[in-house]
Design brief:
By secondary structure, the chain is an alpha/beta fold. It has a single domain (6-139, 152-179, 193-198), classed as Rossmann fold (3-Layer(aba) Sandwich), CATH 3.40.50.300. It has helices at residues 17-30, 50-60, 71-74, 85-88, 96-108, 133-137, 152-166, 180-186, 188-194, 201-210; strands spanning 6-10, 35-38, 41-42, 77-78, 112-116, 141-146, 170-174. The strands form two sheets. It has a five-stranded parallel sheet with strand order 2-5-1-6-7, sandwiched between helices. α1 (17-30) packs parallel to α2 (50-60). The protein starts with 5 loop residues before the first strand and ends with a helix. Bound molecules: guanosine-5'-triphosphate (GTP) and magnesium ion. The site of magnesium ion (MG) has 4 residues, from α1.
């Protein structure tokens, strides 16, 4: 059975997209799904794509059909400069054909493909495209990963506003890398007003799967 892909984005770089994607790989795999992974564009690549490698190795633990896949299959477009694709491509064309082919190859051996964006939603890819355009391009469900530091309410609401304006289906989660304690006093009182909080990745993955069709 094929599910719609999940596009993992975050309020910024370094928030926990790869971390959350790895947790989702584990949870969805334990549900019996064959999970594939894609990092369409990875920048800051020296010897190998760090995210692409971690995603592949995590997925390979569960999806044996990925045995012969390489980092290039997961991260088909790579640039050296650690910056937005618009800048790091240094004027070159983004190879969207390679991205599509990588997605098709991944889908062939998976029930669901998890796609990790680069940076956040408004990261420029080229003259015409922003990172959020990948959501519709892949007809994906979006998972927004937010942080728990001071300022997270603003970051979260801004990102949700963009997702609402795009009229795409999404879920969001908070990655408590740190500050779980201060979060209770600085942020929770507001979130309690607007949402029902749950930080269980199992429930989250159920919700993401339910959004299909
Ligand atoms: P980019 O892809 O570079 O934009 O970053 P990202 O959003 O994928 O962030 P990533 O998941 O790589 O997290 C950044 C760093 O924080 C990594 O070193 C992670 O291992 C670490 N990290 C992220 N989330 C957690 C967490 O919940 N707990 C711990 N201990 N470390 C975390
Ligand atoms: Mg990452």
């Amino acid at each position: 059975m094929k599910y719609r892909p999940i596009f993992i984005t975050a309020t910024n770089t370094g928030i926990g997209k790869t971390y959350a994607t790895c947790r989702l790989i584990e949870t969805l795999s334990h549900k019996g799904l064959h999970v594939g992974v894609l990092k369409p564009i990875e920048t800051g690549v020296k010897e190998f794509p760090i995210d692409g490698k971690l995603l592949l190795e995590t997925a390979q633990k569960y999806n044996k059909k990925l045995k012969n896949f390489t980092c290039r299959d997961v991260a088909p477009v790579q640039f050296l400069l650690p910056a937005s694709p618009y800048v790091s491509r240094e004027g070159k064309k983004i190879d969207f054909k390679a991205i599509n082919l990588a997605y098709e190859k991944m889908l062939h051996v998976s029930d669901i493909v998890l796609i990790e964006g680069a940076g956040g939603l408004m990261v420029p890819v080229d003259e015409k495209i922003y990172m959020y355009d990948f959501i519709k391009k892949f007809n994906a469900i979006t998972l927004l990963v937010t942080h728990a530091n001071l300022g997270c309410i603003n970051d979260t609401l801004l990102n949700r506003k963009i997702l609402d304006s795009l009229k795409v289906e999404y879920q969001w989660c908070i990655n408590f890398k740190e500050n779980k304690n201060s979060f209770q006093t600085t942020t929770l009182p507001y979130y309690k007003k607007i949402i029902s909080l749950q930080d269980d990745i199992k429930i989250l993955s159920d919700n993401l799967l339910k959004l299909k069709k």
